[in-house]
Every structure is written in structure tokens, then in C-alpha cells.
Amino acid sequence: MIAPTARHQLAHPEGEVATARAAAACNTIMVLSNMSTCTVEDVASSCNAVRFFQLYFFQFLSCSCLLGLKISNGTFPEQVYKRRDISAQIVQRAEKSGYKAIVLTVDAPRLGRREADIKNRMVAPQLNFEGILSTDLNSDEGSKVEAFVKETFDASLCWEEIEWLKSITNLPILIKGVLTHEVARKAVEVGVAGIVVSNHAGRQLDYTPTTISGVVDAVGRKVPVLLDGGVRRGTDAFKALALGAQAVLVGRPVIYGLAANGERGVRRIIEMLKDEFELTMALCGCPGVMDITRSHVRTECDKLHSML
Ligand SMILES: Cc1cc2nc3c(=O)[nH]c(=O)nc-3n(C[C@H](O)[C@H](O)[C@H](O)COP(=O)(O)O)c2cc1C
User: Comparing 193 with 71, which gets the higher pLDDT?
Assistant: First the structure.
């Protein structure tokens, strides 16, 4: 699957549209970010790729001087309002445009400190929100993306939000950004259709681990577990499946392929990964994906256990 990486037009003028066409040609699912640089509808009408839609929840940050509130030092505190109407609008647009699932990203209550973005004063067009949210933010320092996220992402996201999301869409809901078995169990309890084990490519917090094995054990096959992050070779996909993932998501390699050669570059990346994956299966004696088992990989943990 292609992971949501909301910067495609910075890599290539056709951005997510070219990526979606490559996904369709290679029979791969594309997850479109709600921060994408092409609109939900443009990507949908460009080809017949199977598409999932990635969602962040929104809020509205307003200075309380509008409400006449002051704190003791004379400054005006900021007030935060949830903007479920915006989340609802965008989910309904995705549903209407034929997206097959919602992938709710839960690991970005705030943006991690992305020093390259700050240095480059990063700006990314937010076409999905034109006329809905102000995307022209004044930030004297740092990246505009950071300012946008600070002002508009709902940092108070909680489990009730999933109940609400289920009430406004018939699409299955996957949760992306799970790292622990406790969160995975709770996610199953509230009725998600799938779990994406991900540390957001390490872009949020340095040193966060991805712990697929613990999550797979906790979930116990009740819903599919997907692995995201660090897949660079077919062997990585094979290892993920051996550890219990049902699919993998690929982010940056797709962007690199897009930057190098547009739609053809993305196709090449996906083909290379698939070829390497099939070769690994053949060399491990696995005629089909169902033949890939836990015994095909040995982790550091296994090594320790074998020494006891
Ligand atoms: C440039 C860039 C933009 C991203 N934008 C989003 C996003 O909008 N939503 C999201 O859930 N994840 C986003 N991610 C994280 C990816 O979905 C994915 O978790 C990560 O790239 C996977 O790791 P990989 O790049 O090692 O394959 C982004 C990642 C990158 C590199």
C-alpha cells in the first residue's frame, strides 16, 4: 500500500494524481492524505485505483479577546473548539468520491520538530481545505506547515472521536500510529477495522519504536494489522508478513520515485518491491503468502529466549 505522504506536488507537478495512476497500474492501494496537494476529487477522477482516505481531526484556535476573556497578566488565552464539521465534510467528500476506507492518524496531536521544514520555512498547498479553513497563516518563524497544524489539528483527540466517526460514515475505519499493545487492544474494543503500526517514519519523535509483534499478539487476528515505516526492500515486506502483518505501507520510496520519474518512477518502485518480495518468497520456500510464517524470521528477542 502507498502511505499518505502529503507533499507529492513538491516532488512532481502531477503529485498524487500520478501516484494514484501508478497504484492503479500496479494493483496497489493508495492512502491519500487529507493534507494532499491534489484534491480528494481530482485524485478520485484520475484513475480507478483502490483508494483509502487518511484523516486528521480538526479544531479551531481562537484568541479569547473575541470573547472578552483575559488572564491575570493581561494577555488573552487561546480557546480551542473542535471542528467536527470540517472532519465530517471531508470524510463525506471522500465517501462520495469512492474511497474505500478511512485511515485515522492518531500520532500527530502536535507536529514533531522537523528541523529541515523549519529551516526551509516549509509551505505546502492545502487544496482540500480551500474555502473551509484558512490556510494562509502568519508565521514569522518556522514552517507554515507547523503553524497550520498547531492552529488546526485537534490535539485533544480521544476514543470517543472514533465512535463519532463511525456514526457519520459507513466506511471501515483504520487507525494509524499505534505503537503499543494497550492501544491496539483498546482500538479493537472501540470497533476499528484495522490497525496500522507506525511511528510516522520517525518524523514525530526520535527513538519511538515500532512494535509489530506485541500488537499482533494483542489483537489476536480480530482485525488486520498493517506495518508502516522503513520498508525499503521486498525482504522488509516479507519480514513484516512473517511477524504477522497483513500488508505494508510504503511512504518515502514512493516520493523518491515520483521525484525521479513521475508516474513511471512510482511504478518502478512498486514493481521493484514486488519482484524482491516474490524472490524472497521463492528462496524461502513459500509458494503463497499464506506460507509465510513466524518461523521465517528471528528477532533479537527470539535470540535471547533461545539462550535461556
Ligand atoms: C513527506 C511526508 C509527508 C507525510 N504526510 C503524512 C500525512 O499527511 N498523514 C499521515 O498520516 N502520515 C504522513 N506521513 C507519514 C507516512 O504516512 C508514513 O507513515 C511514513 O512515511 C512511512 O515510512 P517510510 O517513509 O519509511 O515508508 C508523511 C511522511 C512523509 C515522509
Answer: 193
Average pLDDT, the chain: 87
38: pLDDT strictly greater than 60: yes
Contact 228, 248 (CB under 8 A): yes
189: cell is 474494543
Please tell me the predicted confidence (pLDDT) of residue 67. Answer: 46
- DSSP structure string for 28-50: --EEEETT-SS-HHHHHHH----
What is the Cα–Cα distance from 262 to 258, expressed in whole angstroms? 4
Quote the number of domains for the chain: 1
User: What pLDDT does 135 receive?
Assistant: 62
pTM score, whole prediction: 0.88
* CATH number, residue 192: 3.20.20.70
Q: Which residues are catalytic?
A: 200
**Burial (CB count within 10 angstroms: exposed 0-12, middle 13-18, buried 19+), residue 218:** buried
In a domain, residue 46? The reply is yes
How far is the C-alpha of 116 from the C-alpha of 135, rounded, in Å? 21
Output the CA 286–ligand 1 centroid distance in Å: 31
Substitution site in 1, 2, 5, 53 for ligand 1 pocket (most atoms within 8 Å of beta carbon): 5
For residue 124, is it within any domain? no
In a domain, 140, yes or no: no
Atom of ligand 1 nearest to the CA of 228: 22
Q: Does the structure show a pLDDT above 60 at 68?
A: no
**Which residue segment(s) compose the domain that 268 sits in?**
8-57+85-108+155-307
Closest CA to 223 of 182, 180, 189: 189
Is it the case that residue 65 has pLDDT exceeding 50?
no
Rounded CA gap, 210 and 227, in Å?
9
In a domain, 167, yes or no: yes
